[in-house]
Design goal:
The protein is an alpha+beta fold and 165 residues long. It contains 4 helices and 5 strands. A 3-stranded antiparallel beta sheet has the order 1-2-3, with no helix packed on it. A hairpin with a 6-residue loop joins strand 2 and strand 3. It is flat and about 60 Å long. Keywords: FAD, Flavoprotein, NAD. It comes from Capsella grandiflora.
């Protein structure tokens, strides 16, 4: 069976025998417990680094997740205040933030800036890695765009085969 433990911090690991023993505690603090498992998947979520900036003091609007709300020109609801990258909605990727920055400066300079978010690649760092670019099937369905689905078995990938041996 699988057990998901959200908002949990790993404070100790013992992988010397078969399987893994983890010492965990709630991220907000609390009692430590020991877990035993065959396999452990650790997934660290990301949140925008906006807490403590006192954005509310100047009236900058944020969403429930703390992301700064901007228009298509990266301008906030406060004149002269712009936001890009990980603090605005969208993928939290360095190369996306860089594109946001270039486009934002172009807008400020009175030029035409543009970021095509459909062309921002993403990677999942598994073994082997998996990458994607473009809209998801869910997005295409929602937008009413016709599409074809192609499937390729992961174990037919030569790198996946090499890692599996």
């Amino acid at each position: 069976s699988m057990k998901f433990m959200l908002k949990t911090k790993v404070v100790g690991v013992d992988s010397s025998g078969d399987g893994v023993k983890l010492i965990v505690e709630p991220a907000e603090g609390g009692e430590q417990t020991t877990l035993e498992a065959d396999i452990v998947l650790v997934s660290a979520g990301r949140t925008p680094f906006t807490s403590g900036l006192d954005l509310e003091k100047i009236g900058v609007e944020t969403d429930k997740g703390g992301r700064i709300l901007v228009n298509e020109r990266f301008s906030t609801n406060v004149s002269g205040v712009y936001a890009i990258g990980d603090v605005i909605p969208g993928p939290m990727l360095a190369h996306k933030a860089e594109e946001d920055g270039v486009a934002c400066v172009e807008f400020i300079a009175g030029k035409h800036g543009h970021v095509d978010y459909d062309k921002v690649p993403g990677v999942v760092y598994t073994h082997p890695e998996v990458a994607s670019v473009g809209k998801t099937e869910e997005q295409l369905k929602k937008e009413g765009v016709s599409y074809n689905v192609g499937k390729f078995p992961f174990m037919a990938n030569s790198r996946a085969k090499a890692i599996d041996t």
